[in-house]
Amino acid sequence: MNTPSNAVPGPSLAAAATPPRPFYWSVRRELWENRSLYLVPAIAAGVALVGFLVASRHLPENVRKAAAVDPNVQYSLLTASHDYVAALLIVVTVITGAFYCLDALHGERRDRSILFWKSLPVSDTTTVLSKAAIPFVVLPVIAFCVILATHLLMLLMATLILVSNGENPAILWAQAPLFRNPLVLIYGLITLTIWYAPVSAWLLLVSAWAQRAPILWAVVPPLVLAAIEKIAFNTTYIGAMLRSRLSGGFSHAFLIRAKDAAAQGDGGAHDRMSQAFNAIPDPAKFVSSPAVWIGLVVAAALLALAVWLRRRRDPI
């Protein structure tokens, strides 16, 4: 007599045996719940494209001028708008990341969804690290993709405008940042993310701790400490540290040539932007900077505190 088979189809068994990936799905949850992470940079790119289209009325004249000048001047003359757009999108992405970090752990306590998420087999460490992955990994990737896509659209729009005016767009494509410095853009985004790591970790910590108005708790205490230091000791170490952490990443990651630094004193904003985007990447200088490693250690400590707080904080 034949015995009934107990075999289970292979794919179903494999699917049942596949372990869950809490970190992966936690990151995807953040993207599902925070569409502003990619919508805000996309909207900023759309606004920048409208501004570029309006400014392109001068493009044919600039191309005629560029044909008779040095190639370095050509880059500044023809593609300065690309640099401005890249800078705008990077700033928008940084601001988007800051607001996300402030709400990441505070929002789930405010709407009490933390009770549901804590009932799932996902550790507090995984939850906090998945939220930290947004400013540390996801947003730089989004910024890179949006910047490249925007630059490509700008080139296509400029090409159509030049062709319709009887001008040759070859000189414009030869100077396009899309092809000249994508690696510099990647390097800049990576170093910027590393430099801002303690800031992002601090905002996540405040988000896990604050009962209300996390933006005030994130901003006011450092400013109060800087003011107390100035009043009590007439020194500005805390203020200098804050300024350096918020705006000093570029000087640690890039090398500005002496002639470019001297030119910044008598050039306008147009020249300074071109010099900034044509600065020389200096990975050795960045990696050897103690401020970089101190920042990473501080970021790790702040994230550990955020995990500890998330484990103990109750809904608001």
Task: Give a quick set of tags describing it.
two-stranded antiparallel sheet; 19 helices; 316 residues
User: Which parts are unreliable, with pLDDT below 50 for 5 consecutive residues or more?
Assistant: 7-19, 258-274
Give the integer mean of the pLDDT values: 81
Number of strands: 2
Q: Tell me the radius of gyration.
A: 25 Å
The separation of the N and C termini measures: 66 Å
Percent of residues in helical segments?
over 70%
Description:
This protein is mainly alpha-helical. It has one domain. A two-stranded antiparallel ribbon has the order 1-2. The longest helix is centred in the middle third of the chain and has 41 residues, at 124-164. α3 packs parallel to α8, α5 runs antiparallel to α8 and α8 (124-164) packs across α19. 78% of the residues lie in helices and 1% in strands.
SSE arrangement:
Blueprint: H1 10-17, H2 22-33, H3 36-55, H4 59-66, H5 71-104, H6 106-110, H7 114-118, H8 124-164, H9 170-174, H10 177-180, H11 182-195, H12 197-209, H13 214-233, H14 237-247, H15 249-253, E1 254-255, H16 258-263, H17 269-277, E2 280-281, H18 283-287, H19 290-312
Antiparallel strand pairs: 1-2
Helix pairs in contact: 2-8, 3-5, 3-8, 4-5, 5-8, 5-12, 5-17, 8-11, 8-12, 8-19, 12-13, 12-19, 13-14
